[in-house]
Amino acid sequence: MNRVYHIQITTKALEKHFSPAALQKIVEANLYQDRLRGQIGHDEYHFDNNAFEASYSYIEKKRSLVRISLMADDPGTAWKAFGRLTHTAQDFYAHSNYIDLWLARQPEGTRPAPEQVHPMDPDLLHSPELRSGKVYLPWEVFTLVSFLEPTVKRLLPRDSHAWMNLDSPKQGYQFDYAVQAAVKRTGIEFSEITQVLTQSQLQSFLAK
Question: Of the residues 39, 68, 88, 181, which has the maximum number of CB atoms within 10 A of its CB?
Fold first, then answer.
């Protein structure tokens, strides 16, 4: 997703839990994943190129790092790890066809409110139809230039990131579902980590 939406999603999901200073560090780490070096050669950061197992593994490694860091009384490293895993979790909904699959399962002719989206439907998470956009380099880079995007996009296959992404509202109504799913998933990741922390570790993590 575009930078502004990662900020909005992370803030909405976590601001009630963390101190402003801690949340700022988490957001900064989330956005760090979209630096140039994080965009090229790191499909696992973004669920790109059907790298589902690599992305799930990356999230789990960051979960473990959060816990290990808090055991070592190092909340700064924990915030960075948590920020990075939230970016990956959020990108799942923007870079895969999960939202399309979820909408296709709704009763014909109906479109539930985006707030009703289920972010962790086990059938969809393990569906053979689940896929994510392929990044066709170097052509995808040119889609980042606004006046070149329409021309370059027409030349790319329909399974490309350019066609499949839900990174901004211009991609259509499915974007709102991706945002809501990402907010819910961020909250789930928070619960997943904090439920195994001691009280002192939790206080250190929240920095309140």
Answer: 181
- Across the chain, which has 208 residues, the per-10-residue mean pLDDT values are 97 98 98 89 96 98 98 98 98 98 91 97 97 93 84 93 95 97 98 96 94
Strand segments, DSSP code E, in 28-182 are: none
Ranges assigned E (strand) in 22-123? none
Looking at residue 79, its amino acid is W
CB-side exposure of 158: number of CA atoms within 13 Å?
1
- Count the residues in the chain: 208
Is this prediction's pTM over 0.90? yes
Residue 42, both tokens: 């790191």
Alpha carbon separation from 148 to 15, 134, 141, 195 (Å, rounded): 37, 19, 10, 47
The CA distance from 123 to 102, in Å, is 10
- Dihedral of CA atoms 94, 17, 57, 127 in degrees, nearest 10, equals -50
DSSP assignments along 14-77, one per residue: HTTTS-HHHHHHHHHHHHHTTSHHHHSS-GGGTT-TT-HHHHHHHHHHHHHHHHHHHHTT-HHH
What is the separation of C-alpha 119 from the centre of its chain, rounded to a whole number of angstroms?
A: 11
| Closest among 116, 131, 122 to 51, alpha carbons compared | 131
* CB contact at 8 A, 27 and 203: no
